[in-house]
Amino acid sequence: MDELAEHLLFVLSHFGLKSVIGFGVGAGANILARFALAHPEKVNALCLINCVSTQAGWIEWGYQKLNVRHLRSQGMTQGVLDYLMWHHFGRGTEERNHDLVQVYKNYFERRVNPTNLALLIDSYVRRTDLNITRELDPTRKKEGLTLGVPVMNITGALSPHVDDTVTLNGRLDPMNSSWMKISDCGMVLEEQPGKVSEAFRLFLQGEGYVVRSPRKPVTPTTPKVIVIRN
């Protein structure tokens, strides 16, 4: 995961970007957090959705290793598909949004390369801890290691990653971070895009990146008079 984070330097260089505002989901959020820790001068702010800051536990490691073996030997099996759906949406998605579930199931079954997915999962499950801590003592804050950029940490109330985001929130500086749990959804971008976009807009506005454009003055016009004759 650290190597993937370092690859972002080439992306910024290619597009001529001096710094960016990062928006990442899941593994992408973890990669952006690593990039911000290694190159804080390149990141202005972060919006992280379902971000995990710790290494994989034994249960996750076991499930993912089994998924990797199935993907490499049998392709997209029903067991792997069920795990992917749970990983993205949590439980009860079928009742909440049947059409969305079918779209993702068809995508995983027909569009995803099993070998490439196995490589990505294997890389993600081998991730290391971010090794960040919250230091509340103002005299020792410089000694602690945490994300120094503003962070908006988002998850869904029905997401299987709620505890992971709570752990991350406990390791961030409360002065420049916020935690948001959106109700009635597991995958916030797909199920509650309006709430996410509004929260992101307010977050950027609070950091001074979004300026409200003044409304154009309304030019008074003479109202039309309709004459009704008997």
From TrEMBL:
Any single Pfam family the record assigns to this protein: Ndr
Cross-referenced InterPro entries: AB_hydrolase_fold, NDRG
Family in the record: Belongs to the NDRG family.
Record-linked PANTHER family: N-MYC DOWNSTREAM REGULATED
Name of the featured protein: Protein NDRG3
